[in-house]
Amino acid sequence: MPVPTRSRRPLVVSVLGAGLLLTGCGVWPSQATAPAGAVKGRITLGFVNGGTTEFHTCLQESVERTAHNNGVHLFTANSRQDGDTEVSNIEAMIARKVDALIVQTVDVDALKGDIAEAKAAGVPIFLTSVVPDDTSDLLGAVVVDLKEVGELDAEWIERDAAGRKVSVAVIAGAPGAASDLLTEAFTRRLPDNAEVVASRPGMYDPVKARTVAAAMIKESPGLDYAFVANEEMAFAARKAFDAAGAEDVRIVTVNGTDEALAALKAGSLAATVSNSAADTGELAVQNVVSLLRKDQRADRIDKTPVRLVTRDNADTAPLYCPLD
Questions:
Q1: pTM higher than 0.85, yes or no?
Q2: 323 falls within a domain
Q3: Which of 8, 12, 20, 140 is surrounded by the most beta carbons within 10 Å?
Q4: How many other CB atoms are found less than 10 A from the CB of residue 116?
Q5: Range of the domain at 292
């Protein structure tokens, strides 16, 4: 089985960079011992990231590190939340004839054609975070149960409100499958005594999120809670609320970064749901390698563990980003 990693920072090959290849210490099966259909020799993977938020950065660090520790060649590219760029990046990886391609997609619903194209070229795709309804053409996936994430935050508000009539604002991410799944699950799970009075995208951009939050608190000065689709935007929303004298707005969010854990302890955030990018990246590489080797123990569709974190349990939250 592939080896886990929590240590050294590896070198990585950029999809736009020169042809420097990683020299790892992994061990691969010989021609004689490999199962039928298994990839033999050193594996070459591509990783197409979807953005540049802290989640995306930590995910890539974990993918790079785990690839290095398993002796895997790795090429990377970033789509920067642009669907057309994602298509170009996937086509570039196919042209490199990688053994498989890990994709943190910008929009899973628009990925069907790319999955089919890659499969036809003999380059199976493995997704992180989200999957389409039909996974039959995928090599596999490590998913974050975004429905559960949204529900956990909503359930915390239900307990905290304790039956009181409360108002809630939603600052979503960028329009697309991941943000939509998250925010829809959150709003559906809210109790009847909680009313959503505003919902707008923050585009995973702290500057945009602060502007959105400032407008929301101006329109709803008695706001009780805000659900924010990631912690970088949540910190920006906190600044906007505080600047408007709305220090009592309680913010629930998603990720579980070190900065958020400190904010929970300080009281500036009320709750977050941890979904470790370190775990997602590590599981992705390990499972891809196992699936390419035809290891029968490999989980084709795996899940990143999620957990509600508050001030009370912040000290035991899982590691979000790989340690330097």
A1: no
A2: no
A3: 140
A4: 12
A5: 13-144+277-304
